[in-house]
């Protein structure tokens, strides 16, 4: 399984905000710090704001901030909310599956269980857990 760049950038944005909680950060600054496209990050921030993870303020003194305590932001929930398609294989979507062995296949349920296990691990982590090595993370930010 591979997460989309969108989810990766969403997580990196949240981490940047969590380790720099004392100021609102511009999308340009976050993008520079995390080595990502500023244009793409604007879309990510819009989604994170719609999901209630960040707040945004326009203008000179504006920027992006976490809307919630990092300890209340669950990593599994963020990934589920930022991934558009979690179907590991075609047959996970019964509406578009053309697999002739789907009715008797044991692979699909095994993959489904593996995906559940993946999210069970992520559900055990919050943004506070991921941003815990703040002292080590802050100097690694590029901008």
General description of the model:
Helix content is 48%, strand content 6%. It has a domain at 5-86 and 127-140: Orthogonal Bundle (Arc Repressor Mutant, subunit A), CATH 1.10.10. It has helices at 5-19, 27-34, 38-50, 75-82, 107-122, 127-130, 134-137; strands at 54-57, 63-66. Helix 1 crosses helix 2 (27-34), helix 1 packs across helix 3 (38-50) and helix 2 crosses helix 3 (38-50). The chain contains 7 helices and 2 strands, in the order H-H-H-E-E-H-H-H-H. It has a two-stranded antiparallel ribbon with strand order 1-2. The two termini are 31 Å apart. By secondary structure, the chain is mainly α.
What is the fold's blueprint, element by element?
Elements: H1 5-19, H2 27-34, H3 38-50, E1 54-57, E2 63-66, H4 75-82, H5 107-122, H6 127-130, H7 134-137
Helix pairs in contact: 1-2, 1-3, 1-4, 2-3, 4-5
- Helical residues, percent: 40-55%
Q: Could you tell me the strand content as a percent range?
A: 5-15%
The CATH superfamily of the domain at 5-86 and 127-140 appears as Winged helix-like DNA-binding domain superfamily/Winged helix DNA-binding domain
Shape: elongated
Number of helices: 7
Low-confidence stretches: none
Head-to-tail CA distance between termini: 31 Å
Query: How many distinct beta strands?
Result: 2
| Average predicted local confidence, pLDDT | 92
Structural class: mainly alpha
Largest sheet, in brief, is: 2 strands, antiparallel
CATH topology of the domain at 5-86 and 127-140: Arc Repressor Mutant, subunit A
Instruction: Using the coordinates above, name the CATH class of the domain at 5-86 and 127-140.
Output: Mainly Alpha
Radius of gyration: 18 Å
Helix/strand order, N-terminal first = HHHEEHHHH
